[in-house]
Each structure stands twice: as structure tokens, then as C-alpha cells.
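Backbone-to-sequence.
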């Protein structure tokens, strides 16, 4: 599934006639609609010079958490750690920001431009413990390709 999706992600990202936000929006929708265990897919980006993340394009239910301070929640922790964060069971996390009561698991993968952590892709799942290394490698690929259109 991920090999085919990679090709589709590349096609969407290469549509240079469209604004970046539109292309990212379409990537979010593609991922949410194609991967059964992806129920909310969104990008957060560092908000200017502030130590906080701001919600970018996403697919899924609207969230109140459009600004997340560095260090807070899974997303805020990834902004500081620069590492993938796979959460098989959100109930087991102390530092977690709940967006919806249906969410059981989450994965956040940082997005780098020239080695600098400038944002992340965040995925919520209503399935418990759904993420494997295949998701991590796939989302790292997506972020690498996204970073190319952002530079
Ligand atoms: N659960 C995230 C907050 C963002 S929502 O999932 C859209 C967190 O703990 O950082």
C-alpha cells in the first residue's frame, strides 16, 4: 500500500501550479482516505520565531488545538526532541493533548529543512496500536518530499 501511495504523494506535491497549502491539504486527504488506520492527518509548523506550533493543512475533524506550545502534548514534545513519537495507546501518556475521544493512538514525525526541525506530520488513529515501522518510514518519505517544495 505505501509504495503506491508514495507515487501518488509525489504526483500531488509536484503540481507546482497549486499553492503549497493546497498541495499539503491534498496529501492529508489522500493519506486519510487511503490508509484505514489514519483518521486525522495534519501538518503543524513552527509559528514564526515563537516556541510554538501552528496548525497547517489537515484532513479530518476540526481541532481546537491550532496552537501548541513547544513541550506540550505529543506534538510539542516532537518539536523539542526532533524524533519520531509513536504512541500505541494515548491513555498511557501523561503529556498528551486530546483532540477527540475516539482517538486511541497517534504518530508524529518531524519535518526538517536543512537539518532544522520546522514542523511535523501528525496522525491520529481510532484503532489501538496500529502503527509500525512501515508507517514511520512512509511518513519520513512524505516529510522529505514536502520539505523539497517548502524550500
Ligand atoms: N494529540 C496531539 C494534539 C494534536 S491533535 O492530535 C490534532 C498532542 O498530544 O500533541
Amino acid at each position: 500500500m505505501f509504495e503506491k501511495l508514495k507515487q501518488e504523494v509525489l504526483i500531488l506535491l509536484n503540481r507546482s501550479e497549486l499553492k503549497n497549502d493546497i498541495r499539503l491539504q491534498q496529501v492529508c486527504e489522500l493519506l486519510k482516505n487511503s490508509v484505514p488506520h489514519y483518521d486525522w492527518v495534519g501538518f503543524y509548523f513552527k509559528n514564526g520565531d515563537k516556541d510554538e506550533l501552528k496548525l497547517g493543512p489537515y484532513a479530518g475533524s476540526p481541532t481546537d488545538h491550532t496552537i501548541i506550545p513547544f513541550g506540550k502534548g505529543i506534538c510539542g514534545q516532537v518539536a523539542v526532541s526532533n524524533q519520531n513519537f509513536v504512541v500505541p495507546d494515548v491513555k498511557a501518556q501523561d503529556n498528551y493533548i486530546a483532540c477527540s475521544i475516539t482517538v486511541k493512538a497517534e504518530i508524529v514525525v518531524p519535518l526538517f529543512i536543512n537539518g532544522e526541525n520546522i514542523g511535523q506530520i501528525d496522525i491520529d488513529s481510532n484503532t489501538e496500536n496500529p502503527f509500525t515501522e512501515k508507517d514511520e518510514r512512509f511518513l519520513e518519505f512524505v516529510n522529505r518530499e514536502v520539505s523539497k517544495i517548502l524550500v
